[in-house]
Design brief:
alpha+beta; 2,3-Dihydroxybiphenyl 1,2-Dioxygenase, domain 1; 8-stranded mixed sheet; 3 helices; 8 strands; 18% helix; 31% strand
């Protein structure tokens, strides 16, 4: 039957103001902050990455990049079909795999289909491979190594984002 994804591991979007985004998703959407991390290879002052628990084991992630272009989100009437999603605010879609071995099997499957794919990258809490679809959309296949916890909340990232936690992000 072959390999199948186990659903969405996380969605990674791009935001312009990390503090405003944090307030919206923690207060209005009632999501819990699960990670605040730096984004190698970018300099600390040029990029940040926050994750929020959407429930059901699903994560919503946001990148902030100092030099990100302004997004064109949900234009009512784009000039052409090509304008839909131009400079959009999505960074990548990550699909889940059940094991590290399955991530590696995906890598071999992609390579066998002439898809350029990264080596497996260990993020500490998950291991991932990255590649692009034919239209250049960045995709990831990821396996959770462990549950996100307090060690994934980098205080320096929160400080640079202008976020002050009134209570611990994780229980």
């Amino acid at each position: 039957m072959g390999l199948k994804t186990g659903g969405v591991h996380h969605m990674a979007l791009v935001c312009k103001d990390m503090a405003r985004t944090h307030d919206f998703y923690t207060k209005a959407m009632n999501m819990r902050l699960t990670a605040a991390i730096t984004v190698p290879p970018y300099a600390e002052e040029d990029a940040m990455h926050l994750f929020y628990d959407m429930g059901g084991g699903n994560q919503l992630a946001f990148f902030w990049f100092r030099h990100a272009p302004d997004p064109l989100v949900g234009q009512a009437q784009p000039a052409t079909v090509a304008d839909v999603g131009a400079n959009g605010s999505m960074h990548h879609v990550a699909f889940t795999a059940d094991s590290e071995d399955e991530v590696l099997a995906w890598r071999e499957q992609l390579k066998a289909n002439d898809v350029k794919v990264t080596p497996m990258i260990d993020h500490g809490f998950c291991k991932s491979i990255y590649f692009q679809d034919p239209d250049g959309i960045q995709l990831e296949i990821s396996h959770w190594v462990r549950v996100l916890d307090q060690r994934d909340i980098e205080e320096d990232v929160l400080r640079r984002a202008g976020i002050r936690l009134e209570q611990p992000a994780l229980a």
